[in-house]
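Posting for a labmate who doesn't have an account.
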Amino acid sequence: MDREATSTPGTVPGPDPAREADASATVLSTGGGRHEHRWLILAVIGIAQLMVVLDATIVNIALPSAQKDLGFSDGNRQWIVTAYALAFGSLLLFGGRIADLVGRKIVFLAGLAGFAVASAIGGAANSFSMLVAARALQGLFGALLAPAALSLLTTTFTDPRERAKAFGIYGAIAGAGGAVGLLLGGVLTEYLNWRWCLYVNLAFAVVAMLGGARLLHPGAPPDRPKLDVPGTVLVSAGLFCIVYGFSNAETHAWSSVLTWGFLVVGVVLVAAFGWWQARAPHPLLPLRVVLDRDRGASFLAMFISGAGMFGVFLFLTYYLQQILEYSPVKTGLAFLPMVAVMVVGSVVTTNFLVPRVGAKPIVPLGMGLAAAGMAWLTALDVTSSYPAHVLPPLLVAGLGLGFVFAPAMSMATAGVAAHDAGVASAMVNTCQQVGGSIGTALLNTLATTAASNYLVGKKPTPQVRADAAMQSYSTAYWWSALFFAVGLIVTFVLYRRGAPVHRESSGDGAVHM
């Protein structure tokens, strides 16, 4: 361990110096503390997070080319996306607990290595089944990597001001990764081929692995918990069924047993998981992590914004390419102003606004701005232009998302005990991933229904088809606006008033001020 890390006083405030020293020792032993290379560690973690987040959208751009190359049907096409979402969403909590048990550095590096190998297999795929298997492997290792990355950030940055800056940057990466994926996917597909949308992960992984191996502290928490096997099985199976059910809603009717049947089973299993967590001797997701008001509000904020955000990326991408006839690269470039505003919003809120006034006015304001941006997008038509009609609502929505992501991520992991950092971080990712899966399926189903209803009794001329597409996009934007409006109410009610106060979660489930 470096000189600075061993000589820095404790960073957990409190009247008792001995308690501060103990807290500092705990943080240092788990790979945190005031590491002299902590900003380089943030860069390493940011690269890994960007790789995981952009992979959710970069493959979408490559799908048409991959389908033509490998010869799979339209009905099977969704499995390239669904295989990743199923493995990633259902195993995140398990991955977070593994990081707490084994050690965050080793799990982080293992997740990177596995993700790289899976990406190489996918890039070299010579059949549909091989590509689907590779995507499922990516999801599995992503479920190890994502919570380990966020918990490393939580334990590395313990000074409130530095933590605010770090989470501002990290939140911006998490929010902007989808748009970056669209741009990068467009460039790689247009100028190389679809396989490079998977091979590119090798570059990200190698850089992050070299940096992580050199900079991160090894070791696991000294009071690491035991694995809750029944809880792991219940929540993994439950989340799998929920994600699978909503994914099926895109290709099956809601009345199909493959849709509602899996959803019902998933809800029952997740409810059973909640019941078991209150009784388990070593719960996978201790209730002390989720019952804190600020953390609970943050988890819900990530869930709701995940549902709404993936909607705008999906349908605005369709609009730009199908109506305005943008190329994949131009489509990706069109999202960059939104990304820039999101980054600025994330950094400003976590560094200047939340420390002074708290999350209560900021996150609800972000939800309101995102809702306004979505509602504004409903005014688009086939004659709209990008500078006058698309860019303004995109900037408003981007600012709103910047106000949501970074503060919610920071508040969701603040004050969590070292041995719960991994599972708390996993909960953040789980909420965003499951929210995205649900939102995408719901919005896609509602949009398709709106287009079908519009075409009833009309001659399907090119103009009518274009108008039907605009009707479907508008429906999706209105529902996305509704998601964010609900988020405004939920976060305004749940978040505490005033600037955040340090709260330390104890092993007994209480929260000490």
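Reply:
Got it, the structure tokens are right above this. The chain has two domains: 30-227+284-508, 228-283.
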